[in-house]
């Protein structure tokens, strides 16, 4: 059990860390630019097979608000970096999903009747098309908040 003085020391350490984080400017390296743009991939994939862990950079609402205000008059290039990050992550996930699909198809196709094999192949094609559509919708949804703020 912690004593009173230990609790005070722990609280003051957390307080200093939070205060230091709040003093950062949105342009500082320690601030998550993805968060400023609306979506940090560390938050997006939390508690999934693709979990990236806790973001090592600061997520602070005040910095986000300051960035949104400042980006009305100056382009910092954060959105381009953010889009590149999201596209890279989507490519990585697509490669992983394609690999998993191939593995399942190989397992399922062993000793399968040719008619059933064709039906399964058609179903996988439909699933791939639906997955591509979902990816497009995810990107569109990610940009909708930005589009409405910039108008």
Quick take:
The protein is mainly α and 151 residues long. It is built from six helices and no strands.
What's the SSE blueprint?
Blueprint: H1 4-23, H2 33-37, H3 41-44, H4 61-70, H5 78-109, H6 114-150
Helix pairs in contact: 5-6
Features of this protein?
single chain, 151 residues, mainly alpha, 6 helices, 0% strand
What is the overall pLDDT average? 78
What's the helix-strand series?
HHHHHH
Quickly give the structural class: mainly alpha
Number of domains: 1
The Cα radius of gyration reads 22 Å
How many distinct beta strands? 0
Strand content: under 5%
What helical percentage do the residues reach? over 70%
**Could you describe the largest sheet, including whether it forms a barrel?**
none
Could you walk me through the main structural features you see in this protein, from its secondary elements to its overall organization?
The chain has one domain (25-150). It contains six helices and no strands. It is elongated, with a radius of gyration of 22 Å. It has helices at residues 4-23, 33-37, 41-44, 61-70, 78-109, 114-150. Helix content is 72%, strand content 0%. It is an all-alpha fold and 151 residues long.
């Amino acid at each position: 059990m912690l004593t009173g003085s230990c609790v005070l020391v722990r609280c003051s350490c957390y307080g200093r860390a939070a205060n230091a984080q709040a003093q950062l400017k949105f342009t500082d390296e320690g601030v998550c630019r993805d968060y400023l743009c609306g979506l940090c991939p560390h938050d997006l994939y939390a508690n999934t097979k693709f979990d990236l862990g806790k973001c090592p950079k600061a997520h602070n609402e005040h910095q986000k608000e300051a960035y949104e205000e400042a980006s009305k008059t100056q382009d910092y290039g954060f959105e381009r970096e953010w889009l590149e990050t999201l596209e890279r992550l989507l490519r990585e996930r697509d490669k992983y999903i394609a690999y998993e699909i191939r593995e399942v198809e190989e397992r399922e196709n062993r000793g399968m009747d040719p008619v059933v094999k064709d039906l399964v192949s058609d179903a996988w094609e439909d699933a791939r098309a639906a997955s591509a559509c979902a990816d497009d919708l995810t990107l569109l949804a990610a940009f909708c908040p930005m589009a409405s703020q910039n108008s």
